[in-house]
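Risk mitigation, structural track. In case the binding assays with zinc ion fail to produce interpretable data, a predicted complex structure has been prepared as a fallback.
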Amino acid sequence: MRAGRVHILVPLSARTPSTVQRMADGTAGRPSVTDAARYARQIRLAEVGLGGQARLAAASVLVVGAGGLGSPAVTYLAAAGVGTIGIVDDDIVEPSNLHRQPLHGTADVGRLKVESAAEAVAALNPDVRVISHAERFTAANASPLVTAYDVVVDGSDNLPTRYAVSAACSESGRPHVWAAALGFEAQMSVWWAGRGPCYACVFPTMPPPGSVPSCAEAGVMGALVGTVGSLQAMEALKILLGVGDPLIGRLLVHNTLAGTWDVITARADPQCASCGSGSPARGGMPRASVGAPGGVSPSLTMAEFVATASRRVIDVRPAPEQADLPGPASVTVELAALRSGEGLAPALLGDRDEVVVFVCRTGQRSAEAAALAHAAGWRHATSLEGGAVAWRRELDSSGRSS
Ligand SMILES: [Zn+2]
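Fallback model:
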């Protein structure tokens, strides 16, 4: 990232096309005549101007994944004139990609996504240099990839890649424009170690394989990833231009069926294993409940839950569903209230040193509740794997054996 803001050279009112053209022609490294026409509508914005356009031309963005999120991200970054775009992806285009990945066409099925993406960018804006990395993003190649670019846009579709991107961004201090989508819901944020939380501050431990459904298993809407991937491009452009307030320390949760946009405040964890001191969590909690440094695990197995003596159980289901909860829930906070931020008040969640265990019927909604609470700084929030169904089964089986 380049520090400082390039000042607007001419007031908006005085910036006629001829002025733009004259300035552009007379200054090395500034947009050409062709560029002045291509970017006219954004150069007209005081926040961009000719200086901002030159800044974008000199900038570089790494997009991890040329899929559902990467398609709009790459498209809008290229259209806006970001000078260098790196694309990392080792996948080939499959028919099942096409409904949400319009960077690729039907004729591209079977080709490498990075090839198809580079062609699409060349057709849209030949001035953009695309660097294709036809490889999987892993911990092994993460550092050289990330440090070669100013901003990283994470459009990956799997947890190991997401954690590898996060670690490399934390280590290098690169802004990490992240999003994830499933079904009709998406989350996004700008993680930036040193300026706010990193991904691992909020999601400290990678969930076990198979515990989080993939888009292949659960499905996802194309227009939703289109929306959020475009927002990722916008956040990257804001950062490169040095304008506005990037989503640092804010977790955006968008449910497109409900038509809701919730913003949860996220705080850096001083003990984060990725960007903080990484020291173990303070004592006072049963060993079984202590997961990653800086907080409890994002979810508890039934055995860990049973072994956790000092816990506060919070049912996140709406009232009609609560009849099957076997134990006494000390409090009910519906997921909708957590999403809106209202349910994250200390009065509802209790003491921050107490283990807060969110429960729903099977563990899906409670996992989101725990993530929202983590994002809001409740480091001792967790979720019961298997939910009330598993809890009932456990009580039944322990009843029989005793
Ligand atoms: Zn962190």
